[in-house]
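Q: Could you fold this chain for me?
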Amino acid sequence: AQPLCCPSRVSMLTGRYPHNHGVRANTGANGGYDRYMANGLDAVSWPAILQTEYYTGMFGKFLNGYQRTARPGLPKGWDWWFALGRGTARPFNWKANLNGTTVSYSGATDAVYQTNVLAEQVVAAIGRKKEYKKPFAILFTPFSPHLPSRPALQFEGMYAAEPFAPASKPSFNEEDVTDKPGFLQSTGRLAAGRIAELAVEWRRMLESARSVDRAFQQIWQKLESDGQLANTFILFASDNGFSWGEHRITKKMMPYQESIKSTMYVWGPGVVPGVDPRIVSNIDFLPTFAEIAGMRVPDPVDGRSMLPLLRNETANWRTSFLTQGFPAEASDAGKRRGNDYRVLVTSDWVYIRYADEAEFYDLTADPFQTKNAVRSLDPEFVASVERRLDLLSRCSGSNCQPIEDAPLPVRTKE
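A: Sure. Below is the predicted structure, expressed as structure tokens.
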């Protein structure tokens, strides 16, 4: 829904597009944990909905700004709370809020490495099932491999010689961006020194991700040993992607595929094995969890349950969805250039609309988005796409789905 940490996570929790849940940034008046709480979103989140029938647990990073808040109490919906506090970005020497009490982890050993401790907490929560006598719904959100990435000691240096894969893309450090929006045209090419820095950061991110792999393995093994694996759904997903020099960009939040597209893995009873290319969104998590639990999906929710899709019970699915960015607030001016946009995303192409510029990419012919083909589009097609973007950017609840499902406008190719 929005390739930025906090708005994306709120969409995961509430099933709503950012223009409906109102958390549009990581910080500022319309961003972060404080805006989430001020809008009462904790009361309509999936943990709050499931809590009557499920034991709910949160382990890891919650929302941006939570670690700095002085707000008393915890968000609604959680039976067990282990949220990263001050030092979130530090894998060693960090703090967490354990059910309202601050706990500290100090030292420089893998025993206190943040991802390892979080995994131990999740494993322990699974083991407590006999105590609470309910099924469990757990949100596990390690900070790793987020920048600044520091791997656990056991994985440090593992990928030191790994070739820097992003540099092999045709879009990497793109030479000619005259077809791109003005903010990119004014962005200089990456110097050799900066590319070398990116390669080091990328390798360290891979190394820190090994701890996430290890955590997943531990959780899987605990579910299996406790006889819970066969009846547990596992969704493995990201809140956004990241650019490593594609189109000269070295951040997230941008409307290109590196930021807005990621692969989700699902395991669970009745899930049909294989690869499904149909497009889903993080607004689909809440209605999916509600259907799994046999509970009514609250209104308004913009997403839809993925369960029929996962079980291959439906041939009908959305043809498009909305990705959006919002203007920077005054306090953030200059830091988020090019982030005010709306994108109509389909399986085959994307249309990006800024205030006074637009981009179009045929993802079959140009998967790396090196050629902006917007000038080749016929006016009728553009008008139809613009109408759908306008409708999606104002839709709410049940009226979003018919717009997403409508047949795509017919495009006259070059």
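A (continued): The two ends are 30 Å apart (CA to CA).
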